[in-house]
Amino acid sequence: MSEKFRIKGATPLKGEVSIGGAKNAVLKLMAAAILVKGATKIYNVPDLTDVDIMLSVIEGLGTKIKHDKIEKSVVIDATNITNITAKYELVSKMRASFIILGALVSRCKEAIVALPGGCAIGERRVDFHIKGLEALGAKIKIENGYVHAKVHRLVGADVYLDIPSVGATENLMLAAVLAEGATRIQNAAQEPEIIDLANFLNTMGADVSGAGTSEIVINGVKADDLHPIEYTTIPDRIEAGTYMTAVVATKGKAIIRNVFPGHLTFFNNKLLKMGANIKLIEPTAIEVSCKNKLSAINFVTQPYPGFPTDLQSMAMTLLTTADGVGIITESLYENRFMQVPDLRRMGADIHQDRNHAIIKGVKKLTGAILSASDLRAGASLVVAGLMADGTSVIENLHHIDRGYENFEEKIKSLGGKIERYVDNSEVNLTEGLHNEAHL
Ligand code: EPU
Q1: Of all atoms in ligand 1, which is nearest to the CA of residue 94?
Q2: Nearest atom (ligand 1) to Cα of 238
Q3: How far apart are CA 330 and CA 352, in angstroms?
């Protein structure tokens, strides 16, 4: 018995939708909360399974957690840390929980954290995280699938990252907060989520500068200099980009609220170039619409401020019916085109060669039974289902639930015809097609 989406496509999305807190920011803020004794409260926490997993990891360390899903807040009372181990059972469910390593080493001078394995979208190594912590003086052993890090005192150092890794930048920022002296992270990631973490840490009493540039300096402070805080997470730029895509794909018109448009500059420019209309109507609200056939574009995914890899699959869905031929180069992950076979089954014309995809626009997509293979590929299939003629069924929703809160409710509020249902048997697409009462 599994949950599935049934989507009847080709209905323009219209109305208003509000974006939740950024998954990829809040997970790290929650880890940062363990640096300080006392109760830290985080607002604008999205209701996602990834948030639940991170809270389980943090609770497992001996902290006390209060998660108020109505208020969208979490209180993490890290007065006592009684356990320094993050088990494989949890870390393997969500690799972002590896971020706890830097925070635990900082706070407890020791941590035992399961090494995340590979991931469907790529190898996703953590070697920069480990080398960075070693540069700060941690002795690291990898045994039985766990990283055991121990240090008498962390001492600031210069660390150069070969790739501006988001996770490595964050792990090192957390470790460096309580180190002696200054740590300089060169070729640091510049994502908005990094700035959010720096703001969170500085509000707490840390001394972090340069976040949002390629060089971040963390001047270590004493544990007593830190204090618990209340903090509001930034909006999720990838969730916002997903709704923008869905509106454009269905030739709709909608207002997206609680968005920081500056976080989506590169993506917005590409949508405009394709023929979409984007209007800033308030500092945190945009109106998106599209009437005409889209034109094909080319792009390469890049670390921020380049084209976000997390929106690559969404843009590919748009290209499937755009005028002309679009070329996508995925430069961050080895295997992030997992939506391609399902898009082809809907009628898309896509040629893939390693990390390049050539998409020749077709007249239309048609509904099919589809399977979410990871979070963003899954979301792009939802968008494809919304724009296609006929009905689509999407399986493996657990991937999508990791990163989109109330996905179907928000789509329904825009007039999209989507329902979540429990499948007790084999999918009967024909029945779905004739049973529009469900939609
Ligand atoms: N890399 C290494 N060694 C390392 C670290 C990274 O080789 O030690 C490589 C990775 O294999 C990857 C590249 O560097 O090819 C970039 O990885 P990065 O560390 O920047 O990514 P991440 O921190 O693991 C975060 C987001 C991802 C997002 C990427 C890139 C979170 C929880 N995840 O991952 O989000 O794709 O940054 O922007 O913040 C998603 O939300 O769907 C998602 C996958």
Answers
A1: 32
A2: 41
A3: 11
